[in-house]
Design goal:
Elements (H helix, E strand, L loop, with lengths): L2 H16 L12 H14 L3 E10 L2 E12 L3 E14 L5 E16 L6 E11 L2 E6 L3 E19 L6 E18 L7 E18 L7 E18 L3 H6 L9 E8 L1 E9 L4 E8 L2 E8 L2 E16 L7 E15 L7 E14 L1 H7 L10 E13 L16 E15 L2 E11 L8 E10 L1 H11 L4 H14 L1 E2 L5 E9 L3 E4 L2 E2 L2
Length: 502
């Protein structure tokens, strides 16, 4: 994605959030001051915030026909609300109420020069409450709603316009955030939020139903989120959308109790259906000038898919899934830590899927697991955020150490596990480790016996595999277990239990 587009949309999202959302604090803010702040903030982010009429009331301001307009080369967005009422509460805080209708219009390029498309979304609130407090330097917002409903309004495009229905419903919404501008060159941000549930349904159908019709349903429950950090200077971001703000450091976490997704596509002849569910999970993200961390996890996920091109329905489940990494981004002159974890545990498939790969049931259909957890250090020679891919003539960094915290592969009743530590000298074109890795293999011979009995693998190949395993492994403490220590020595030597491999 174009970094300029990414930065500008990021700024748009923060601005929209600032106009609609953290815990009220004792302060002396008036309705007029708040309205002026919003306009100044919008202008600094390349947006235009205006009201057709601003009327002073006995307790604040009444804004009529309020619009926020943002545009760049690819997309423009206009938010319209019939009115906003800003009421001074007498304790230094201001209450904000919304007078509907509330709409968002998104206009975008269709890919054909000179032709654009338009999507309008209509927003409705029930029990909406918003409070603004804090100081001008550290403004705080809090908001809540019994429910929020979003539906599709006008849908326009060049030529045939499909029939599109959208319904998004959220309940028990609550959020709070603080924008801290004490340091104008490094805007601070802190937020929390929760959502009882959200459901979404989308239906898309062309005028000619024989060309296909798509329906999708999505649901999530007990959503919680938190985030914060330093966002830099918005004026600098607006003037230099392709650069990282100095001092930028933002982190976010999200958790939920369950997710469900269903899709159904029909074109009059064929039907493609798919579904996905899980029993909860989470997501984390931490991005700064010097490092990037990302991770997600899910529990008890189930997938089903059926389509004409599939010989059998795809049906599988995962007891737990996890993916996470942390990497350095900037050249610091010294090794920096990194880490990664990939774990899919208790993976099962339907008998129909197993039957395609193993019709004779030679392999035990135990759950499959794969876990790899590593950490180490690396030294970067260049900043990855500013590197030019076309100008790379040498590796951007060098590996200094690597630790295998956990290695586990379970399949067909057999399991391979291991751990190890290695170091790498500086200045190597091809990294050469020094250290060792300890491996253990359990249940391998039992699996080979089953494969031999069914004749899937020729007995000669199995005999060769048994011989190689025996040459480089020693018997373990338990029956049908093997152990091996792989050592990497200075100069590129490799041994397995003392037997040279290289």
């Amino acid at each position: 994605m174009d970094p300029m587009l990414t930065k500008s949309r990021f700024a748009l999202s923060l601005s929209a959030l600032a106009l609609t959302c953290a815990a009220p604090a004792m302060a002396q803010v008036t309705a007029s001051e708040l309205w002026a702040e919003w306009q100044t903030q919008s202008a600094s982010q390349g947006q235009a915030l205006a009201a057709a009429q601003v009327a002073t009331t006995g307790s604040g301001l009444q804004l009529t026909d309020v619009t926020t307009v943002y545009s760049d080369a690819d997309v423009s967005a206009t938010t319209r609300v019939a009115g906003l009422t800003l009421t001074e509460n007498g304790d230094g805080t201001v209450s904000v109420s919304v007078i509907e209708p509330y709409s968002v219009e998104i206009e975008f390029e269709t890919g054909t020069p000179g032709q654009t498309g338009l999507i309008e979304l209509l927003v409705a609130f029930d029990g909406f409450d918003m409070q603004v407090g804090g100081t001008q330097a550290a403004r705080s917002y809090s908001y809540a709603a019994n429910s929020v409903t979003i539906t599709a309004g006008r849908i326009e495009g060049h030529g045939e316009t499909p029939e599109i229905d959208v319904l998004i419903s959220m309940d028990a919404l609550a959020a709070a955030y603080t924008v801290d501008g004490t340091d104008p060159n490094n805007l601070g941000y802190d937020s929390t939020g929760s959502l009882g549930s959200m459901s979404a349904g989308v239906s898309v159908a062309p005028e000619d139903r024989s060309e296909g019709e798509l329906k999708m349903i999505f649901g999530i429950t007990d959503l919680t989120s938190s985030g914060g950090g330093n966002l830099g200077n918005f004026a600098t971001v607006a003037a230099n959308p392709g650069t990282m703000p100095e001092g930028f450091d933002f982190d976010a976490e999200l958790g939920y109790s369950s997710v469900a997704l269903e899709s159904d596509f029909r074109d009059g002849r064929d039907v493609v259906v798919a579904s996905y569910t899980n029993d909860g999970g989470g997501f984390m993200f931490d991005f700064s000038e010097t490092s990037l961390a990302y991770g997600f996890n899910t529990q008890n996920a189930a997938l089903y898919a059926e389509a004409p091109d599939l010989p059998v329905p795809v049906e599988a489940s995962v007891g737990s899934a996890e993916f996470a990494f942390e990497i350095p981004l900037s050249a610091t002159g010294a090794p920096e830590p990194f880490a990664a974890r990939f774990a899919y545990q208790d993976v099962t498939m339907s008998d129909a899927l197993w039957g395609m790969a193993d019709p004779m049931q030679a392999v035990p259909r135990d759950p499959v697991s794969l876990v790899l957890d590593i950490s180490g250090t690396a030294q970067l020679m260049v900043d990855l955020m500013t590197i030019d891919p076309n100008g790379i003539d040498a590796p951007p960094g060098e590996l200094r150490s690597l630790t295998i915290n956990e290695l586990r592969l379970g399949f067909g009743g057999a399991e391979l596990s291991g751990s190890g530590d290695m170091t790498f000298a500086a200045g190597q074109m091809v990294p050469m480790p020094v250290g060792s890795v300890d491996l253990e293999l359990a249940g391998a011979f039992a699996l080979m016996d089953r494969l031999e009995a069914t004749g899937i693998i020729p007995i000669e190949q199995l005999a060769m595999a048994r011989g190689m395993i025996g040459a480089f492994a020693r018997p373990g403490a338990m029956p049908d277990t093997l152990e091996s220590t792989i050592e990497f020595t200075p100069g590129g030597g490799i041994t397995a239990n003392g037997v040279p491999l290289q």
